[in-house]
Design brief:
Blueprint lengths: L2 E6 L5 E5 L16 E3 L10 H11 L15
Antiparallel strand pairs: 1-2, 1-3
């Protein structure tokens, strides 16, 4: 079973919970409010998957403002 990081919407308490992917969010142990699952970072991509990702990124259209634009780089 995977471990998920949760943060309380009310008091900000953080904790790890080991549960199935389709389980409902736990209650905060301090204030009993609903907790929210946190997405901490994207998984690392290695090997053939990394090459596929690079090809997919190159296939995207150029940004609307063009190369060198500070908001698109």
């Amino acid at each position: 079973m995977p471990t998920y990081n949760y943060c309380c919407k009310q008091c900000g308490k953080q904790c790890e919970v080991r549960q199935s992917i389709d389980a409902s969010p736990p209650e905060c142990p301090d204030c009993r409010m609903s907790m929210e699952r946190q997405i901490l970072f994207a998984p690392a991509v290695h090997g053939g998957m990394a090459r596929g990702r690079e090809q997919a990124m190159r296939s995207l259209p150029e940004p609307a403002h063009g190369k060198g634009c500070p908001c698109c780089s």
